[in-house]
Design brief:
Structural class: alpha+beta
Order of helices and strands: EHEEHEEEH
Mean pLDDT: 82
Largest sheet: 6 strands, antiparallel
Number of helices: 3
Distance between the termini: 30 Å
Helix content: 10-25%
Shape: globular
Radius of gyration: 13 Å
Strand content: 25-35%
């Protein structure tokens, strides 16, 4: 998505869901820095923990979302794949689904 990263899915009980993010939202900024690609957003969130501020577009309106990202928990969102990136989406999840995904990637 030009001008942001569109959300494909949000995991239940994740920091992303607790911030109020929903499928179809477009993340424009992370901590005041513009984001353009899903891979870029996931890389920034992977090892980050602490206060988080997102600028999000939903239904034509711009929202500021603020919260915390715990160190020991994935953020819990899957972005729509970018055209130039690999053909799979890295799941930012935990539990049985993460184990399944790891086995699937190795096969």
């Amino acid at each position: 998505v030009p001008g942001g990263v569109k959300i494909l899915s949000v995991e239940k009980n994740s920091p992303a869901q607790k911030l109020g993010l929903k499928r179809g939202d477009i993340i424009l900024k992370l901590n005041q820095e513009p984001v353009e690609r899903g891979g870029e957003l996931l890389a920034l969130l992977k090892d980050y923990w602490g206060p988080i501020e997102l600028t999000v577009k939903r239904d034509g309106r711009i929202w500021e979302k603020r919260g915390l990202k715990p160190l020991d928990q994935p953020f819990g969102l899957i972005p729509v794949p970018d055209g130039g990136e690999s053909r799979y989406v890295e799941l930012q999840t935990q539990g049985w689904l993460k184990g399944f995904w790891e086995k699937f990637k190795r096969s």
